[in-house]
Amino acid sequence: MRKFIVFICAAAIVIILFNMFYECNHEWEEATCQVPKTCSKCGATEGDVIDHHWENTDCGSPSPCSMCGTLEGIELTHHWQPDGSKLCKVCGLDERPMDVRFVESLGKALDARWKIMGDEVWYGISERSTWEKIVEAEREILGKYANSHFDDPELGEAAADYIASIDEVETALEGFGTEEWESDYYDSIRHKENVALYTVSTKFDIPVAEENREKLSELTESGLTIVAVNKLIENLRIHDLGGSGNVHNYDVIMENNTEKDFARFMYLVEFYDRNEKVILTRKFTVYNWNPGEKLTRQISINGGYAGMKVISVEWE
Ligand SMILES: [Zn+2]
Ligand SMILES: [Zn+2]
Ligand SMILES: [Zn+2]
Q1: pTM for this predicted structure
Q2: Domain ranges of the chain
């Protein structure tokens, strides 16, 4: 037994000494993209793996790495537009700024809407399913921009408003066919949509199909008017003329601070007290109202006036 152990130890020492003094006459195999330069005899390596080798990097027909067969990590060569914008003519890769892409998609969404509507005007659509198709088509094209970052923050806001209005239409459709649906869409959602379109149109040309250009300008013009009307509403003023006790007379001051001539403009205004209780509701109508024209109407309020709120407007 002891002899055997001595033999084992001797063998181990021989192996250790052999490894210490043996020098492999390496036979190197060239490095590839997978393994570094390697000795085929002892397995020693030197250096690092090399880059993949791609012969053809054209995005239309790229060739895989001739060593490992991968396309992963390849830097493709694209065919950008003649004006240099980064939309590839061959593979469709779109690396243009978000703002540009959104505006183009907005044009497509509008074209999709009008294709579904045909020659019908919005209030002539008799089927709820038609509206649902419009919602679906616009969402499919624009939904992806919901949380996008835009270079132009005002455009970003308009984009967010327009996209939000798609959801609002969907919600309002639950009451389709009722007056509530009409007033939701007519007085609120449509305003928001058209103001958004107007805002976008002041910055970019919204690319819709030729036959839809007139429809688009009707919407942006309506948006412009709504922006103007909002300015009018904000500009409504009241001036206390004094009085006795709780009864005071006031001048309600209206000024057409827009560029627009209104054949008729109507405000419906609520006046409320400190507890936000409505103490008077009045309708003011102005005819042939020219830009810059200032008018006052006298009212008298019984109760402690604290503020007023325009609850609806109508104009022609
Ligand atoms: Zn070797
Ligand atoms: Zn490779
Ligand atoms: Zn390409």
Answers
A1: 0.70
A2: 98-231, 235-315
